[in-house]
Amino acid sequence: MNTRLRETAALVMLAGVSLVAAEPAYVGKWKFNAARSQLTGDTVTISSGADGTMTFDGQGFKYSFKVDGKEYPTPDGSRASWTQPEPDAWDVTIKAGGKLLVGYRAVVKGETMRLAGKLTKPDGTTSDFTVAYKRTAGGPGLVGKWTSTEVTMPVSLLEVAAVAPDGVTITDDTGAVFSGQFDGTAAPGLGRLKGSKYTTIFRKTGANGFEMRTSVDGQPMYAEVYSVSADGKTLTIDGTPVNAPTEKYKVVFDRQ
Predict the structure, then answer these.
(1) Is residue 224 a contact partner of residue 212, using CB atoms and an 8 Å limit?
(2) Is the pTM of this model over 0.70?
(3) Which end of the chain is more exposed for a tag (fewer CB within 10 A), N or C?
(4) 255 HSE (CA, 13 A, CB side)
(5) C-alpha angle 232/249/188, rounded to 5°?
(6) What is the edge-to-edge ordering of all strands in the sheet holding 187-188?
(7) Each residue of 136-193: pLDDT tens digit?
């Protein structure tokens, strides 16, 4: 190999090494670590009106409904319907575009409420989730202020990819996709959230971290900071609900 060819080959090899080294540490596949995560402490308030109308308010995600099986609009563009098959149980379905997104049953026993449901993925399969709440004000029945004490979330795997020229795509195994550039421009939700009123804004917080701010129908809802441990083995999401800043949460993932 002549000198010019050796020099060219060396430059190509160095360029390849440089590109690999420059890949952000958050890029990769990650598995949810329940033991190290903190998901409880969020509050939901359900209130009733004189005409039978009820209002659901979870950290600013607020809509009104009646327990009559009819569909009522929610802030993200989906529609919710509520029925009461038993005195202490309520069935809730959330649809978008006529397709079922979420279905769950809420059972109230005294001052506790437990939700058990399924989230439908784009391929038709489902993910189970459960949430237990304790009533902290109000009552009786479904009415009151509820604080979560136990959460089993449907997300178990997360994939983070870099997107040219300077952006990121986040995909979880429920089919939700968030993608955008680190330029402060609002981007729509994709995958399971395509066509919804979810939007996200991404900003860099450092070479290996970023912030994602989520809005629903133009209303800011969540600020999440993604950061990677020094050894590159752990991805942590520190979240703050914009409308309930004391109800912070932490989601931890291990590199796969």
Answers:
(1) yes
(2) yes
(3) N
(4) 13
(5) 80
(6) 187-188, 198-206, 209-216, 219-228, 234-241, 249-255, 28-32, 157-163, 167-172, 176-181, 190-191
(7) 999 999 999 999 999 999 999 999 999 999 999 999 999 999 999 999 999 999 999 9
| Cα separation, 99 vs 104, whole angstroms | 15
3-state helix/strand/coil string of 43-71:
EEEEEECCCCCEEEEECCEEEEECCCCCE
Measured distance CA(81)–CA(95) in Å, rounded:
9
